[in-house]
Amino acid sequence: AEADGSNEYNNYQPGSLNTTNQIIRDLKNIDIVFHIGDICYANGYLSQWDQFTSQVEPISSTVPYMVASGNHERDWPGTGSFYGNMDSGGECGVPAETMYYVPATNRAKF
Q: According to the model, what pLDDT value does residue 95 have?
């Protein structure tokens, strides 16, 4: 979420600014960040990924930043997702897998 709300397509992300700002203030005490699912709630709006990566850059450029796929990165009918919902907005994990390296035997299984 932008501090001024200029790129918000929905109004349910303002809390992410509080979390991000607190992590940035406490970076000297943090060794690694694990972001477990629902990485940016882009839901198919790729501009949200640009905003999100800018928001977390002070963190991810300072400490290791590991991500795990959530329903908003993966769920789409016919993709093999457990739920088969449309939470990813059609992204199907492509932006997340492209932007973040996840150590795995088969990288195709983000």
A: 83
> What integer best gives the mean pLDDT of the chain?
79
Domain-wise residue ranges, the chain: 14-99
- Asked if 24 contacts 18 with a C-beta cutoff of 8 angstroms, the reply is no
Instruction: Using DSSP, state whether 18 is helix, strand or coil.
Output: helix
CA 97 – CA 68 distance, rounded (Å): 10
Q: Report how far residue 88's alpha carbon sits from residue 75's, in angstroms, rounded to the nearest whole number.
A: 5
Query: What is d(CA 70, CA 90) in angstroms, rounded to the nearest whole number?
Result: 14
pLDDT digits (tens, 9 = 90+) for 34-88: 999 888 877 778 888 888 899 999 999 999 999 988 877 777 777 666 676 777 7
* Burial of 74 per CB tally in 10 Å (0-12, 13-18, 19+): buried
